[in-house]
């Protein structure tokens, strides 16, 4: 597994906790997501899954630290590059490159959906979305919203779209 993260240890002081192996393996489910907003479906998903694996393997305390790192990175850009943060500056839908907003804000989209829908419904929605990609069909954010809506039995666009459109 080759990862682009600079974090090399679970307790890396600047970027940790992280679990690069879990992140990179998680790409298998969504890596060929199509544009626009394809990067949230790739990197946001992988970051969300990384946080889930950290919790399962290392416990809730490290999982909380992981999610705090994502929050802080989005809000104030606490990283080694001195990044200014995304809050009020950029939306996911207007970011065509594979920028960090897809990792940090994108992961919160998945986390919030799981909490709002419950694990079983969230899992059904993810599986539905992944099945579209397995069939070789284009699958961007519209298909993702449709998959989550089918799983929930209601339109999830009012919940998901503000996350994607908002700054």
Summary, kept brief:
The chain contains seven helices and no strands. It has 167 residues and is mainly alpha-helical.
Description:
- Helices cover about 60% and strands about 0% of the residues.
- By secondary structure, it is mainly α.
- It is globular and about 35 Å long.
- The mean pLDDT is about 80.
Derived from helix and strand composition plus strand pairing, the structural class reads: mainly alpha
The tally of helices reads 7
Oligomer: single chain
Order of helices and strands: HHHHHHH
Helix content class: 55-70%
Mean pLDDT: 82
Span of the ends, CA to CA: 33 Å
Task: Please describe the biggest sheet, giving its number of strands, its sense, and whether it closes into a barrel.
Answer: none
Give the total of beta strands: 0
Describe the SSE topology:
Elements (H helix, E strand, L loop, with lengths): L19 H11 L7 H21 L1 H16 L24 H18 L1 H16 L6 H12 L4 H9 L2
Which terms summarize this structure?
167 residues; mainly alpha; 7 helices; globular
